[in-house]
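Input:
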Amino acid sequence: MNSMTAIPLLQVKDLTIDLFTEHAAVRPVDGVSYDVSQGETLAIVGESGSGKTVLNFAPLGLMPTGVSVQTGGQIIFDGQDITKLSERQLRSIRGKSIGFIFQDPMSALNPARRIGRQIAETVELHLGLSATQAESRTLELLKLVGMSDPESRLQQYPHELSGGLRQRVMISIAIAAEPKLLIADEPTTALDVTIQAQILQLLKEIQSRLHMAIVLITHDMGVVAATASKVAVMYAGRIVEQGPVHQVLVRPWHPYTTGLIDAIPRAEDMPGSLFRGLPGAPPILGGPVEACAFNPRCAYAIETCRNRRPPLLATPTPPVIAACPVVLGQWQEGGAP
Amino acid sequence: MSGGHVLRVENLVTRFKSVERGKWITAVDDASIDLKPGEIVGLVGESGCGKSTLGRSIVGLEKPDSGRILLDGVDLATLSGRKLRDTRRAIQYVFQDPYASLNDRQTIGEALAEALTIKGDLSPAGFRLRIRTLLEQVGLPDSLHERYPRELSGGQRQRVAIARALAVEPRVLICDEPVSALDLSVRAQVMNLFLRLQQELGVACLFIAHDLALVRQAATRVYVMYLGKVAEEGPSLDVYERPGHPYTRALLASIPSADPRIAAKRTLSAIKGDIPSPTNPPSGCRFRTRCPLAVQACAEAQPPMVPLSTGHAAACIFAGQENPRIGLSQTIGAVV
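Output:
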């Protein structure tokens, strides 16, 4: 628990996001709450369609065109509710006090512009530096992210760099304005393991230097354990389990979390032995449902799970909370709902 | 001659013209691998190591510059035209992305029927029956044959892709990252399908993947590639528990553990730098520029494969030595 003095940098309270396209209305985020403090890393874990990416990008206006977004709840960042801000006001936050790293650095960088220019642009925009000042700041940033031979990198184009180096460039842009919060969406998924290890290490170093809060979106429990102190597990737009990493990953309560952790191959699994996993597939995003979205895949599901929304409950290992009243003994087969 | 191998690749070299004028990329450089009937063999390494090019060369998607590919002891280079196509059909390829490998405008039934037409000799009723069997083999309901790929989940699509590969009754499946595009909770289902197909149909499988933990559990033997060359080969347990090549050790040490108790005790990033450009690979041992053990001799000649135990060998002059120079002697036993 936070002490009285430490107000979390980011507080998301009962956030609901509805997306409307010409053809459909979906609710990728449904009543989600969490907070992150300075210097802390929260991992948000989920599979495709869990809403983990929309959760972090929609409130900042980062959505594909042709989609209208309606949000409920609050996102208090550094004292102000950013769901209430205009596009113009958001623009002064994006890239400045909140930095972003995307999964695929190739599509996030401009292929036709030199690396140095792309970094300098952010620096000029957000720190109000002159071109010459920006250039020296750019060089500084490239050194900070551990780029070898930074002077000549400035002149290179994204395609001339390896995936790992491109991600370093992305990180340098993200931290250019020394943001208070860094949102990293699957930052190492497209990278090789040895390069992933380097990037995760780099993020840790930069975090301790800048005292940033990090929200790390990932599907890899190994990445969670290596970088985060808190974790929120999402399924079909809702948080199903949340708590400190050293508790949730060791003693999960929700059957979905348990299944995900159980699915990781272990050292004692013999070659040729069957893989553990979950039956079925993650649901396709749709409207809100008055049920546990995981029930079709769940071994513990009872009738109540099919027609009532499970609340997040305290577990025997506080402060972990989990949205499974069956496992936590609140709902029983045949019992009054 | 084939010694009971269904597939044998000998000293394969596949080169590409570089975008830089006059330069060549040797994507696969003198690689030799083999598969016994019904065996699942892993091929691991980082991007650019040549593992996919090796797989694509085997099925004829790339043209090797030299080396031999033997199927049941028959050198594919000695065949041509129809004979080559008929023989090559015994090797099928499963692609990484099931969203890209199926035709959007074909129903699942049509996609499978097309593959069956290649095999020929089926009556219309025989077609339907065979499609039903194929869907059943990959664990899909028969009702799916009227559906379009867009109506299917990623896991279901990959099953269809596997069913299509099975349509021509192959002896070898080359699977290039077949589950990496799938959700974590669904991967196990598809992996178990491979294990079952291997047991039930005796299909041998070359499993190309970057996910070492996955390969360890699926494959009985594994090849580790680095910059076009096989760095280490051997039974999975030997390679993972007693890695002989510093690159294999570095790879294993880079996998983050999902157990916070282990993660807290370990620092990641056991290896520095990027993979060098394949247009200009280092002399001698390809790994020497990132290797903590490298000495002058490593730059002078390519290290031979040093045998470590039955079937286990590593291309490192220090392989098998108890404490090769300073540090990095600790073996990483656990995968996760």
